[in-house]
Amino acid sequence: MIHDxxxxxxxxxxxxxxxxxxxxxxxxxxxxxxxxTIKCSDCGGDVQVPIPDGMELEDLDRPLEDQELQIIQLxxxxxxxxDRIADLENAVEDLMERRDALERDRSEQTLRMGSVxxxxxxxxxxxxxxxxxxxxxxxxxxxxxxxAAAQSASV
Length: 155
Ligand SMILES: [Zn+2]
Hints:
By secondary structure, this protein is mainly alpha-helical. The chain has one helix and five strands. It has one helix at about 65-155, and strands spanning about 1-5, 15-20, 25-30, 35-40, 45-50. It has a three-stranded antiparallel β-sheet, with no helix packed on it. Strand 2 (about 15-20) and strand 3 form a beta hairpin. It starts with a strand and ends with a helix.
């Protein structure tokens, strides 16, 4: 079904001629192959046969049967749907990237919050130690006060 225009002389006006997206080889295929995925005759890669815009009955030297035309229209719809799916997949990818960025921001915030909490904890511990020291000082003052009073009484 597929032949190489460089080496084959038999190319009909109705053939679809296009370049392989992998190896850039010029390919020709019967119009009935429009929208099909074929193997490149040169590199063997999967190639989507383009559907020429406005492919109509009068462009062909041989009339297309209704069924054939319908099949090609269906393939065209399928290709459009696949394009739409690809667009949606890209949109989903963008959203996931944005979500990941937000997630990163949030974990950075959490880390920063964690270090603030850690410092707060250090301050609280220090305050408790200071408070204990003050209590000790206060206790010393209270125990020394009666002694001082006794001393002054004995004078
Ligand atoms: Zn190729």
